[in-house]
Structures are given as structure tokens and as C-alpha cells.
Amino acid sequence: MKKIITTFFIILTLTSVTEAESGKKVFETYCWGCHHQTAVAFGPPFSEIASKRTAEEIRAMITDPASVSKTFGYKRNAMPAFTLNEEELKAITSYILSFKPKTPKKEDPKKNQDKIIQDAYPNIAQNKEVK
Description:
It is a single chain. By secondary structure, this protein is mainly α. The protein has a single domain, classed as Cytochrome Bc1 Complex, Chain D, domain 2 (Orthogonal Bundle), CATH 1.10.760. Helices cover 66% and strands 0% of the residues. It contains seven helices and no strands. The chain is globular, with a radius of gyration of 23 Å. The N and C termini lie far apart (56 Å). About 5% of the residues have low confidence.
């Protein structure tokens, strides 16, 4: 059983590494002239796209940018339509989404407020707990 699980994770890891490399290759072939991963070029950076769009929206924008631009309410569109096979489309979509900014954990504001009260007014905080 351990061998099966280990094999599964090795295949999964190799697949994701291969997909990332494929996505980078598609990026270098079709996208690099107008987009960069994290910096603004002619088009928006992948980090911005990934933070605003779903995988389906990204795929649609690549295959039919004129229609999708109208749907999003853009007045104009400079992106050409690309005819990619399913593997390339999946690879570039995953590659773009890999630049999605990591969101920090949201802390409970009440928890933080109690800490502020305890730090600033230790006697009041102790009396509050005794009640």
C-alpha cells in the first residue's frame, strides 16, 4: 500500500513540474511579447490577471478575447485570439494562476481587541475575567 501511495505522489509531483514547464514554454512562445509574470508590460502582468480572474475566464480570454473583453465591459481589446490545443491551454492557464498572490490569514478582530485591552489595562482585563 505504501508503494502505491508513494508512486501516486511521485507521478503527481512530476506531472505538476512538467505542466509548469509546459506553461512556461507556452508563455515564452505566445505571451511574452505583451505580458510579463509580475511587471506591467503592454498587457497586464500574470500576477494581476491571476488575482482577478478564474481559470475559465483566463481560458476564454485566450481563445476569444474580443467577446470576453465586451463581456468584461472593456471599450477595446488589443489581444489577438490564440488557437491552442487543450494541453497548451491547460498549461498556460495553470501557469498564469501560479502567480496568484498568497492571501494572508485574516485574524479575528475581537481576539486582537481583547489582547489590546489586556496589554493596556491589565487590571480591568483581570476583573472582566473574574465576573
